[in-house]
Amino acid sequence: MINFCSNCGGKVHVSVPPMDNLPRHICGDCGQIHYQNPKVIVGTLPVFEGKVLLCQRAIEPRLGYWTLPAGFLENHETAFAGAKRETQEESGAEYNQSQLYRIYDIPRISQIYIMYIAQLTHATLDPGEESLSARLFEESEIPWDSLAFPIMNDILKDFFIDRQKGAFPVAEKVL
């Protein structure tokens, strides 16, 4: 909920602007429309010699739980560049090859995940401030009950199914 305009500081109200069909936050003083759009999360599913890289979160939410390296896309950043940045920041992992893998739309929480499969160049990891640990896991070792977010279950399950088939098709899924 927005109470005050970031443009002029005036009081904001919710109504449907002309030529629109959804309620928006509108400044009563300057008329600025404050759009609220979904958050875009970008990340990778890093792989090295058949193992998958997971990071143990050092921050809330879900402190101590495991996740794939991912985070919010920054302004003026491509999805690819953001995914690479997040992977480097959270795990210190380096890769020289990646491919778009999945786009997950989660309308109930207004999020969109853009995930890449990344082939790591080596197993050396150096977790950043946002990670307690970074580790490579065999499929049988994945800490399913300690994954940070439900979407991580979906991504990993899709990956292991696709790996058995020997193909990693780009796909969009609505969760």
CATH class membership of the largest domain: Alpha Beta
How many β-strands, per DSSP?
11
CATH names the topology of the largest domain as Nucleoside Triphosphate Pyrophosphohydrolase
The helix-and-strand class reads: alpha+beta
> What letter string, H or E per element, gives the SSE order?
EEEEEEEHEEEHE
Strand content: 35-45%
What is the count of DSSP helices, taking H or I runs of 4+ residues? 2
Query: Major sheet: size, sense and barrel closure?
Result: 8 strands, mixed
Low-pLDDT regions? none
Q: Termini separation (Å)?
A: 25 Å
CATH superfamily of the largest domain: Nucleoside Triphosphate Pyrophosphohydrolase
Whole-number total of structural domains: 2
Fraction of helical residues:
10-25%
Q: Rg to the nearest angstrom?
A: 19 Å
Mean pLDDT: 97
Shape: elongated
CATH architecture of the largest domain: Alpha-Beta Complex
- Please identify the oligomeric state: single chain
Looking at this protein, list some descriptive labels.
175 residues, alpha+beta, Ubiquitin Ligase Nedd4, Chain: W, Nucleoside Triphosphate Pyrophosphohydrolase, 2 domains, eight-stranded mixed β-sheet, three-stranded antiparallel β-sheet, 2 helices, 17% helix
Can you lay out the helices and strands and say which pair or pack?
Layout (H helix, E strand, L loop, with lengths): L11 E4 L8 E4 L5 E2 L4 E10 L2 E7 L8 E2 L2 E3 L6 H13 L3 E12 L4 E10 L10 E7 L12 H16 L5 E4 L1
Parallel strand pairs: 4-9, 8-11
Antiparallel strand pairs: 1-2, 2-3, 4-5, 4-7, 5-6, 5-10, 8-9
